[in-house]
Amino acid sequence: MELKGKKILLTGGRGFLGREVHEKLLSRGARAEDVFIPTAEEYDLRKRENCEQVVVGKDLIIHLAAKVGGIGFNQEHPGELFYDNLVMGVELMEAARKARVEKFLAVATICSYPKFTPVPFKEDDLWNGYPEETNASYGLAKKMLLVQAQAYRQQYGFNGAVLFPTNLYGPGDNFDPKSSHVIPALIKKVADTKRNGKSFIEAWGTGKPTREFLYVEDAAEGIVLAAEKYDKSEPVNLGSGQEISIKVLAELIAKLMDFHGEIRWDTSKPDGQPRRLLDVSRAEREFDFKAKTKLADGLRQTVDWYLADPK
């Protein structure tokens, strides 16, 4: 798909990932006046009439909008996470089908994978078990995007595709302790501890689980490449292909922030999924995506951004 001249709907376009995707679209030839970014205040995408309104005249829809948070937020709001994410996807894709939109690209989540998926996670393993309990409602709601896209392609010839990115991070991330993910949470904890003159931080769990992280600009690049080049029904992972334990991650962030205090692990808190690492070969094969940003470099940029204006 040539983006120049296309009418594009970008849901979640003012969010952490959405801002980067918007910039990438413009850099690839999309015109600013052709990219429509609905706000949640104006268009509640859980409502059918709003979905029907925003898809009118669009050639491409990139669906990023989601309700999302870390482990604690997932534990406290499983019903909201399931309902809001499921209904947004169902209503928006159905509206797009009825409006004969040329292409629908949805972004799901690594949380959709089974709790004990063989590492590295291959797309074919998506249905081989139940997700990790603390984020199952979110992961399953987002996985329904894949079911819907494949069903619509089979019955209606609808061009829908779904990407499954790993944990994202970078400048502009969510640093709210009530809903942030692990990297911004640790950065904020270290910054606050240093500012308050304390000698230790507390981190959730044991530190033993592993995660894979993808820099937000790299994720945006992968999404736009898929919008341009990918027109199949099979799910595609987006990741960096690099794995790190939460313990080592915390130590790396402490080092980058010149924090020499203690990291105390609160083992009464959940660890979440034991390991996360994606097989990223399909994305490279299908639309030439390969992450470029090394974790240490991305963390440094994220830390610098946060320290310039602590939230």
Keywords:
10 helices; six-stranded parallel β-sheet; two-stranded parallel sheet; Rossmann fold; alpha/beta; about 300 residues; about 15% strand
CATH topology of the domain at 8-172 and 211-242 and 277-292: Rossmann fold
SSE sequence, one letter per element: EHEHEHHEHEEHEEEHEEHEHH
The overall average pLDDT, rounded, is 96
Strand order of the largest sheet: 2-1-3-4-5-10
What is the gist of this entry?
The chain is α/β, with parallel strands linked by helices. 41% of the residues lie in helices and 14% in strands.
What can you see in these coordinates?
This protein is of the alpha/beta class and 311 residues long. It has a domain at 8-172 and 211-242 and 277-292: NAD(P)-binding Rossmann-like Domain (Rossmann fold, 3-Layer(aba) Sandwich). It contains ten helices and twelve strands. The strands form four sheets. A six-stranded parallel sheet has the order 2-1-3-4-5-10, sandwiched between helices. It has a two-stranded parallel ribbon with strand order 6-9. It has a two-stranded parallel ribbon with strand order 7-12. β1, α1 and β2 (35-36) form a beta-alpha-beta unit. α1 (16-27) crosses α7, α4 (78-98) packs parallel to α5 (136-156) and α6 crosses α8.
